[in-house]
């Protein structure tokens, strides 16, 4: 038994070492990716649910890896978060997005851009100062940007999260509570959080098209948001029936494959030309 335990420990150790080495190589690969423009902004449109008018887009990161092809954020973000590289990654992304927002503004395109922040970003005490500095130099308009923060990220350290959110809000950014209704409920903090929007999680949208109970839940979330004066966006809208139901429930905006899947910036601009005369 002792021999087996020893063997287990050895295998475990080798596995950890390999994992560690793998993570290190991933971290350096991600650094290179940022430096060599392998990271791309993909955009997914959002529309007003009543008029169908395109009103904005969510920015979703993609990694165009020279060997592995297109890598999804779910594959590389956990590593970026654990290694702390996410802080650099988010700064890189925010600067790129603000540049795009400025370009659009100058071209007369009035669209709201949303970006995702992670818990590590909220715990980064220098992010607000960095953004303030960037805003001053670039003269980009922070009001064109909505920062999406998930409930579970807020709940990791609600006090710290709320104070970071307040600092970002003071700079002029809009804030949204992402994946609303999932995980640890941030309901108790909803009143204290400087958010102006909640994003109803895709799971609710899916359920709503399957049961009347699900529909009631969507109606309750929208009613709650309206009581608090919050804007609502539904994510993962895939069918016309879902759009119809959300619009009837009073949800302000929809986002999902029904409109379009996330696409590169140039493709998005071309798409917009066809969908928005
Ligand atoms: P999220 O913020 O909830 O983003 C929505 C995800 O749902 C996106 O996946 C999007 O492609 C996908 N989606 C959109 N419409 C539909 C639909 O109709 N049906 C289905 N089944 N899926 C839909 P994606 O791009 O793989 O991103 C996954 C997650 O990774 C995001 O979830 C977000 O939490 C995170 N993420 C993406 N980009 C960034 C980033 O730049 N920074 C940070 N911190 N997180 C990011
Ligand atoms: Ca999001
Ligand atoms: Ca979401
Ligand atoms: Ca999500």
Automatic annotation (TrEMBL):
EAL domain location is 23-276
Q: Which UniProt keywords apply?
A: Membrane, Signal, Transmembrane, Transmembrane helix
| GO terms, molecular function | cyclic-guanylate-specific phosphodiesterase activity
Protein's UniProt keywords contain Signal: yes
Q: What is this protein called?
A: Diguanylate cyclase (GGDEF) domain-containing protein
């Amino acid at each position: 038994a002792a021999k087996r335990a020893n063997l287990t420990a050895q295998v475990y150790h080798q596995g950890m070492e390999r994992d560690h080495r793998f993570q290190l190589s991933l971290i350096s690969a991600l650094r290179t990716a940022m430096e060599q423009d392998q990271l791309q902004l993909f955009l997914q449109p959002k529309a007003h649910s009543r008029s169908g008018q395109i009103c904005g887009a969510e920015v979703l990161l993609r990694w165009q890896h020279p060997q592995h092809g297109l890598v999804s954020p779910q594959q590389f973000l956990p590593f970026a978060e654990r290694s702390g590289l996410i802080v650099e990654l988010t700064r890189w992304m925010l600067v790129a997005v603000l540049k795009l927002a400025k370009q659009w503004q100058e071209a007369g395109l009035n669209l709201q851009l949303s970006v995702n922040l992670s818990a590590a970003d909220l715990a980064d005490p220098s992010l607000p100062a960095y953004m303030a500095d960037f805003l001053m130099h670039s003269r980009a308009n922070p009001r064109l940007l909505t920062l999406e923060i998930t409930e579970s990220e807020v709940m990791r350290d609600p006090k710290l999260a709320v104070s970071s959110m307040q600092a970002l809000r003071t700079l002029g950014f809009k804030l949204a509570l992402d994946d609303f209704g999932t995980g640890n409920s941030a309901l108790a903090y909803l009143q204290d959080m400087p958010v102006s929007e909640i994003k109803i999680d895709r799971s609710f949208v899916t359920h709503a098209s399957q049961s009347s109970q699900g529909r009631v839940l969507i109606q309750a979330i929208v009613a709650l948001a309206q009581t608090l004066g919050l804007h609502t966006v539904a994510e993962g809208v895939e069918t016309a029936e879902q759009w119809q139901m959300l619009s009837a429930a009073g949800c302000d905006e929809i986002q999902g494959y029904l409109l379009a899947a996330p696409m590169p910036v140039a493709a998005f601009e071309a798409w917009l030309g066809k969908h928005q005369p």
